[in-house]
Amino acid sequence: MPKIQGSTLSNQDIHTALLIATLTAGQEYSGLMIQVMASGVAGNGNYTLYATRQLAGSGAVYQYQVPTVYAVASGATIIAFPSLLLSCSNTDVIKVYIIGLAGDVSISSIITEFWTTDGVKQDLVNAPNSTAVTAIQSGLATPTNITAGTITTVTNLTNAPSNGDFTSTMKSSITAAVPDTASIVAAVLGGVIEGSLTIQQSMRIFLAMLAGKASGGGTVSQIFRNTLDSKNRITFTTDANGNRTAVTFDLT
After folding, report:
1. 50 φ/ψ angles, rounded to the nearest 5 degrees
2. For position 169, what pLDDT does the model report?
3. Three-state secondary structure call for residue 40
């Protein structure tokens, strides 16, 4: 739920109606929520919160809904009103007012926040990643096969953009986005297939069992070497019946 704007007032007299916040809508809102919190109030009485709406910022001012009356107990000095929920059109002006008690001539703080339940419309032209937008617009401005904004006839893609039609920025972005062969291979071989065992480690075990030298046959300790014959890849410990009771791998 995006926050639209907020404001804080200090040392305010609210014993009569006080304007505490104004919002000029930058878009249409079907769910506009207003939250008000105040501290340093006198308490022991009813506090009132209400909002008004002026269409397109001019003409008649309408009270938006029945005022919210909040009963504050004796001794309570900090209050948070139930949220006001309303709707408005683009450029409408929303104003929020609070009414306190006779003793509320200088309350310490009033915080007003405007939120929306229907999101904020994004301006794609002026989106946060303006650098990328500018680079794309620059690259598309004057490609080889476009004259005065009109695309010439394309036959069997013979007039399709070639490598020379892209700016250096665009080519760099494309190159950076596409992984190289080594990265793809590493990602595949690094995939886990069981427990923490990867595809690459499993293939090392298979090679040792199928193509590596072996020793210790007929004994309780059997060893299978890696295909380079540089290390013991697999070590089996067996009982008198040849059943494996322990298995050790060197997966490096």
Report:
1. -150, 165
2. 79
3. coil
**Nearest residue to 213 via CA among 230, 200, 201:** 230
Amino acid at 228: L
* Torsion of Cα atoms, 142 then 143 then 148 then 153, to 10°: 180
Cα distances from 175 to residues 161, 180, 182, in angstroms, run 17, 9, 14
The identity of residue 252, as a single letter, is T
Residues 157-187 pLDDT 10s: 555 556 566 677 777 877 787 888 888 899 8
- Tell me the C-alpha to C-alpha distance, in Å, between residue 122 and each of 26, 125, 128, 193: 11, 9, 10, 43
Q: pLDDT for 102-117, tens place per residue?
A: 999 999 999 999 999 8
Side-chain half-sphere of 152: how many Cα atoms within 13 Å? 13
Q: What are the φ and ψ backbone dihedral angles of 83, each rounded to 5 degrees?
A: -65, 140
Distance CA 79, CA 82 (A): 10
27 CA to centre of own chain = 22
**Within 13 Å and on the Cβ side, how many CA atoms surround 173?**
11
Six-digit token string for 248 = 């050790």
Query: What average pLDDT does the segment 51-64 reach?
Result: 94
**CB-count exposure of residue 98 (10 Å: 0-12, 13-18, 19+):** buried
Amino acid 137 reads Q
- Rg, Å, the chain Cα set: 36
In three-state secondary structure terms, 138 is: helix
Taking the CA atoms of 143, 144, 145 and 146 in sequence, report the sign of the dihedral they define: positive
